[in-house]
Amino acid sequence: MADLPMSNTVAPLLQPHLMALRKELRMHAPTIETVFYAMQKNAQELPLYIKRWKGIVDHVKYGHDISSSFSINKKSADDHLPVRQKTCMNIWERMTIHWNGDVSLCNEDIDGDYIVANLARQTIKEAWNTDKLKAYRNLHKEKRFQEIPLCKNCDMFSP
Q: How far is residue 108's CA from residue 84's CA, in Å, rounded to a whole number?
């Protein structure tokens, strides 16, 4: 992604949707933030990222550390995580949008293994209400976290 021009990212797709949604709602909601995880391959893109999103979204965040659950595939059988007891509210409160417009189940899905929509083909409202996302929400409501590998191994919002 380091060589990908900003014009090829989700920014041009997202901006009109965000403004239209807020106008339709006649509110300053939903709150919209972007998060940039600086890594060796993309750290030089941080200033451009901040410049691109400042003034468009409510919060422009960035960080250098990521949760250990991002390395889900590197966990061994010896690793112990508490059994999830509570539903994660992120799937009702947040939308994770990757650089290419893919909408993922969660910000923990950095590889895009749990895509529920794409903003190049759907509006934010449509993406928020896809059958895939509704199915994941239902599993959470029913506390069937073990059926979603990403959630089963999550250590971000454990009990």
A: 16
